[in-house]
Specification:
The chain is built from eight helices and six strands; from the N terminus they run βαβββαβααβαααα. A hairpin with a 7-residue loop joins β2 and β3. The protein has a single domain, classed as Pyruvate-ferredoxin oxidoreductase, PFOR, domain III (Pyruvate-ferredoxin Oxidoreductase, domain 3).
Length: about 200
């Protein structure tokens, strides 16, 4: 088994932490995991991407070949589409947060952000499965506005391709968080997990 997962977003959204937690949970379960990270810009707000490659039999290189991603998890809609175009194929599954993160050019009126419905349509047409999630809104409703990254990891874990269960991810969470923060992260993880199960995931 070899599973290629792209986890992407922009700086400050917590996707590097999230991919590290997922990678650690898979290692704890006995899988061979390679994690590669690329940064489009060093400052907050630049594109950030993790390559998560999971195998039960062999070591792999850290970077996913173009067109070979099985899953794309995106913390931002334009990033979802951009990574699908590069790393995805007609079978790739895509889960993404629908909340845009506007770059500076858009905020000052020099650029225009693409229409969200156009983004959704292209992702749907060029993937095997797509699920737009209001992850940031879900995190706010769960009481932790900064936990959208953990919601997205719950969503990822709910896909049938992912060889991980919530309790196994919780083990890694407990190594990194304590008390109320740990319990909150468990709760928001399950929000994402259940959203995908209801939408046709694992």
């Amino acid at each position: 088994m070899l599973l290629n997962v792209v986890i992407c977003g922009i700086g400050g959204q917590g996707n590097i932490l999230a991919s590290g937690l997922m990678g650690s949970a898979l290692v704890e379960k006995g899988y061979k995991v390679a994690v590669g990270e690329t940064y489009g810009a060093s400052q907050r707000g630049g594109s950030v991407m993790s390559h998560l490659r999971v195998s039960d039999t062999r070591e792999t290189g850290v970077l996913i070949p173009k067109g070979k991603a099985d899953i794309v998890v995106a913390f931002e809609p334009v990033e979802a589409l951009r990574m699908l175009r590069i790393y995805g194929n007609s079978d790739t599954k895509v889960i993404y947060d629908i909340r845009p993160a506007y770059p500076l050019g858009v905020l000052i009126g020099e650029d225009k952000y693409p229409d969200l419905e156009d983004i959704k349509k292209e992702i749907e047409q060029n993937s095997g499965y797509s699920l737009p999630l209001p992850a940031t809104e879900m995190a706010v409703n769960a009481g932790n506005a900064k936990a959208a990254n953990i919601i997205m990891m719950g969503a990822l874990a709910a896909l049938k391709e992912m060889p991980i269960e919530p309790e196994e991810f919780f083990g890694v969470l407990s190594q990194n968080f304590k008390g109320k923060v740990l319990e909150m992260n468990k709760e928001v993880f399950m929000v994402g997990y259940n959203a995908v199960k209801e939408g046709g995931g694992k």
